[in-house]
Amino acid sequence: MELPSEDALRFLVSSYARVRADLGELLEEPPLVLPTGEFFPDEFDKTPEGVANVMLRVKSYTPLSDDLPVDLAFTEPDEQAGGGGCGTGGCAPGAGPKDVARGGAIETDRGYAVVVDVRDVAEPSLLVASLARSVAGIVLAEGEVDLPEGDVPAASEVLATAMGFGVILAQGACVYKKGCGGMRMHRGTHLGVDEHAVLLALFTRVEGKKPSAARSHLDTTQAEAFDEALKWVDSNHELVERLRDDPELLVDGLFEMKKSAGLFGRIFGKKKSPRPDDAPAPSARTQRSEAEQRRLDEARRLVEEALAEE
C-alpha cells in the first residue's frame, strides 16, 4: 500500500487540526469505537427499528445532546440509474467502486434526519460507516464549524475519526461484495481507505490509543494501509504534538512534513518537547542521604582493594 499524495496528507492533517481547533472541548478523551459487542451490544435485525437502535448507539458516542431530535429516513436506488438488475448492488459495469458514500444527514423542522440507503442495511460495515459520518455531519452543524460547502462531506469523516470512529470508517471505505459480475469493491465513505488509514493513525497517536487495538479489527487491505500510515505518522512526531496541543497552528496547511523513516529513525528521531520557561530545570544529580553515601563509599573501597590485590 502507498501513502496518499503530499497534498492529500496536508489536507488530512489541516482538516483534523481544524476540527480539533474548533471543537476541541467536545473531543476530550474520545473512545476508540470498535465493531464489537462492547460498543454495539444490541442484537441487530435488518428492520427500521434495528437500524434506528444502531444510529442511537452511534449518537451516544458523540457530544450530541440526548434531547436533540435525530430521526431516521431511508432512500432506495433509482431504477433508472443503471445500478444492475439482481438487486445486490454489485452488478453495474466498470472497475471503480459501485457507489461512494450513500446516504447522509439533513436538517429538518424539528432537528435532523439521518438518511440511510436501503442497500447498506445488509452490510454492517457500510451501514455503521454511513451512520457515523452522518452523525458527525450533525455535530459539525451544531458546532457551527465554518466550512466551505464542498468540504463538509470530507470534514464529517475527519470529525468522525476524531470522535473515535476511525476503525468503523476505515472498514467502510473498502468492502468487497459478490454480485453477478463477481466480487466488487464498495466504498461507504467520501475519503478512500488510504486517507482513512492516515486519519486513524493520527488518532491513535494524538489520543494515546494502542495501534494494535485498532489493527486487530481491520481487514487485510485496511491493515496494510494502516501500517504504512503509522510509519509516516511516527516519522512526524512534532506534527503529532502540534495536532494534540496546538492544532490552530496547522489549520492553514503551512507546515513541514517528513517522509516515512525506518524503524531506528522513528525510534531515535523522537525529540522531547521543549520545557516551558517557568518549569524548574531538572537536577543534574539526585542528592543522596548520608547512609546511601556511606554505603557507596564502602562499596568503592572494597572495589579498590580488590583491584589492588590483582
Write the layout of secondary structure elements.
Layout: H1 6-23, H2 48-60, E1 70-75, E2 104-107, E3 112-117, H3 124-142, H4 152-172, E4 175-179, E5 182-186, H5 193-207, H6 211-215, H7 220-234, H8 237-245, H9 263-268, H10 290-309
Parallel strand pairs: 1-3
Antiparallel strand pairs: 2-3, 4-5
Helix pairs in contact: 1-4, 1-5, 2-3, 3-4, 4-5, 5-7, 5-8
Written account of the structure:
With 310 residues, the chain is mainly alpha-helical. The chain has one domain. It is built from 10 helices and 5 strands.
In short:
With about 300 residues, the protein is mainly alpha-helical. The protein has helices at about 5-25, 50-60, 125-140, 150-170, 195-205, 210-215, 220-235, 235-245, 265-270, 290-310, and strands at about 70-75, 105, 110-115, 175-180, 180-185. It is built from 10 helices and 5 strands, in the order ααβββααββαααααα.
Beta percentage is: 5-15%
Helix count from the secondary structure assignment: 10
- Spatial shape: elongated
**Helicity level:** 40-55%
- Total number of β-strand segments? 5
Mean pLDDT: 84
Distance between the termini: 62 Å
> Oligomer, anyone?
single chain
Largest sheet, spatial ordering of strands: 1-3-2
What string, H for helix and E for strand, traces the elements in order? Answer: HHEEEHHEEHHHHHH
Count of structural domains: 1
Biggest β-sheet: count, sense, barrel? 3 strands, mixed
What radius of gyration results from the CA coordinates? Answer: 25 Å
Query: Which structural class should the secondary elements be placed in?
Result: mainly alpha
Low-confidence stretches: 81-95, 273-286
